[in-house]
Amino acid sequence: MSINLNIGQRILVGREGQQAVGINDMTVSRRHCTLTRVGAEDYVIEDIGSSRGTIADGLPVVKTRVKLSTPLMLGNYQTTVGQLLGIQVANKSQSAATPGGKPQETIHIGQLESVYDNYEEQIKELSKRRGTQNIKRMLPMQILMPVVACGSMFINFEPQVASGLFKGSLMIGCVYLGIKLSARNVTAGVEMVEEQFEINKQFQIDYVCPSCKNFLGMGRPVKSLLNIGQCPYCKGRFVR
Fold it and tell me: Using CA atoms, how far apart are residues 101 and 96, in angstroms rounded to an integer?
């Protein structure tokens, strides 16, 4: 099934969208983005608050102009505008093919191994730091509970010393300490989210086909690309 939009016509894309192909990938939102035809060969894709974002031609976007052949990432789901509409597109960057239909161009991708390995190391390191940060989030409660318990025991056993002022000061001090520690952890968590966004963004810029410069996808190491055998965009033959 193909969808031929009139100029100005729009469709919803997502797990509950109107695109030509069904999407079951849970990283794609139910209502992920919209696709609007604005010219003979031009479309506008607009993210509508998806949980995992929309990437067009390797760059995160909110709203941008695209072509039928523009590669897209909806969450972790890799596709093109043409595929969403069910329209076959002749890729102009594809090299001349032999009569048997095999592409003649050979693309060496061995140099991409270091790009992928570096990305994996960055993500692993970030995951370790995030785990450490989760432990630190528990520290305020682990610190405050014994302090409050000891203070309560002191108050119970020494009522003549533990005045109302002392009780109030103890509670205020505990609350202040908890707020300070929690605020510091929240700030660190936000910084790590931003850092992961930048790591993913740079990876999408660097991990591209050396021939057509299209992003080769998350979770696809060089070994996997060699098993696939060819670029999904320009159809060049992958070799190490």
Answer: 9
Task: Tell me which range, 64-68, 138-142, 185-189, 222-226, is most confidently predicted by mean pLDDT.
Answer: 64-68
How far is residue 172's CA from residue 201's CA, in Å, rounded to a whole number? 44
Asked whether residue 45 carries a pLDDT value surpassing 80, the answer given is yes
Residue among 131, 100, 80, 123 at smallest CA distance from 233: 80
Give dist(CA 115, CA 196) in Å, integer.
Answer: 16
**Amino acid found at 125:** E
CB within 8 A of 193, min separation 6: which ones? Answer: none
CA 73 to CA 197: how far, in whole Å?
Answer: 14
Between CA 13 and CA 169 the distance in angstroms is 56
> Nearest to residue 74, comparing CAs of 109, 36, 39, 35?
35
> How far apart (Å, rounded) are the C-alpha atoms in residues 200 and 235?
25
- Residue 45: phi and psi, rounded to 5, are -105, 135
Task: Name the residue among 133, 144, 132 with its Cα closest to residue 178.
Answer: 144
The CA distances from residue 34 to 53, 79, 80, in Å, are 13, 14, 13
What type of residue sits at position 118? N
Residue with tokens 């949980």: 51
pLDDT for 171 beyond 90 = no
